[in-house]
Amino acid sequence: RPFRIPRSLEEVDNGQILGFSADLSEDHPGFHDPVYKQRRVDICNLARTHRIGQPIPRIDYSPEEVDVWRTVMTELQQLFPQHACKEFLRCWPMFGFSPDEVPQLEDLSAVLTRATGFQIRPVAGLLRPRDFLNGLAFRTFHSTQYMRHHSSPRYTPEPDVVHELIGHVPMLADPAYADLVHQIGIASLTADEKQIWHLTKVYWYTVEFGVVREGGGVKAFGAGVLSSFGELQHMAAGRAELVPLDVAAPLPRMSYKDGYQQRYFVLDSFEEGAAHLKAYCRTLHQHLPDDVRVAVGLL
Ligand code: H2B
Ligand code: FE
């Protein structure tokens, strides 16, 4: 299948949604809830009509949605000091997260932009890996804005506002981490389908489920671990296997459904891991046209 290299963020398609969008499948916790489904449609329509450069629409989250946020925040906050990596703990206070209020994408985006030049762009659901990764090349994180279903505050089968804002956003305020994610994005611009798939796995085992050695222990930096009380506890219990990450080697298949990870890829240090990842990404940068290099800030 042919692909076009986007020359600007405007050319990154944020309209093609995989997975649920507002048509929830039968095993989605909100499948039997028409009010929830309509809420999803309304919030997704805001993302679809949002234009780059416009402020991100503010959502008036309902008391029920705030309760979900509060449940997750209250539990996670207890685990972070012990189990989140130092980069996360340094960035976390910059955003003023409170258990009583779901943060607005627009406000967090402003903080991020000041910290690392990253911005948030609202999106209606799970983006195709190529579009999602291409966005990172333009220092843009595509984020959903809807809340998971209140019947299961600790579980979501898809990215939602809790996962994006707690798991991903704080890490993106760390300059070295933001730079790494930017490089992964740039590597995706000229990647063929096979390379996109490999980058998707690299992203999955680092940005989503990565852990790092720190002070004799193992700490979480992956968003899927940081945004899930159960996954964070599971990781901290130390029963999952820890394997060193070799970014160039074939990586195992990803699973969204088999519960907690049975194996985490671990970086010996963040600096060293990032250096390996960036070296791998640069092997994919070689054929980037000069105008694109300029557009993504490489030249
Ligand atoms: N889409 C959205 N909306 N949020 C994500 O965090 C996300 C995505 N992650 N699409 C991507 C895919 C990631 O899991 C990899 C690159 O496939
Ligand atoms: Fe994620």
Structural class: alpha/beta
Q: Kindly state the mean pLDDT as a whole number?
A: 93
Question: What's the helical proportion of residues?
Answer: 40-55%
Number of strands: 8
- Strand/helix succession: EHHHHEEHEHHHEEHHEEHH
Beta-strand residue fraction: 5-15%
**Which ions and ligands are bound to the chains?**
ligand H2B, fe (iii) ion
Oligomer: single chain
Total helical elements: 12
Which shape, going by the Cα principal axes? globular
* Order of strands in the sheet with most strands: 6-5-8-7
Low-confidence residue ranges: none
From the alpha carbons, calculate the radius of gyration and give it in angstroms: 18 Å
End-to-end C-alpha gap: 29 Å
Describe the largest sheet.
4 strands, mixed
Descriptive report:
- The protein is of the alpha/beta class.
- Helix content is 46%, strand content 10%.
- The chain has twelve helices and eight strands.
- The protein has helices at residues 34-49, 63-83, 86-91, 105-116, 129-137, 161-168, 175-189, 193-208, 223-226, 229-237, 270-285, 290-295, and strands spanning 17-18, 119-122, 126-127, 140-143, 211-214, 217-220, 241-244, 263-267.
- The strands form three sheets. A four-stranded mixed sheet has the order 6-5-8-7. Strands 1-3 form a two-stranded antiparallel ribbon. Strands 2-4 form a two-stranded parallel sheet.
- Strand 5 and strand 6 form a beta hairpin.
- Helix 5 (129-137) crosses helix 7, helix 7 runs antiparallel to helix 8 (193-208) and helix 7 runs parallel beside helix 11 (270-285).
- The radius of gyration is 18 Å and the shape is globular.
- The two termini are 29 Å apart.
- The mean pLDDT is 93.
- It binds ligand H2B and fe (iii) ion.
- Residues 159, 163, 167-168, 208, 223 line the site of fe (iii) ion.
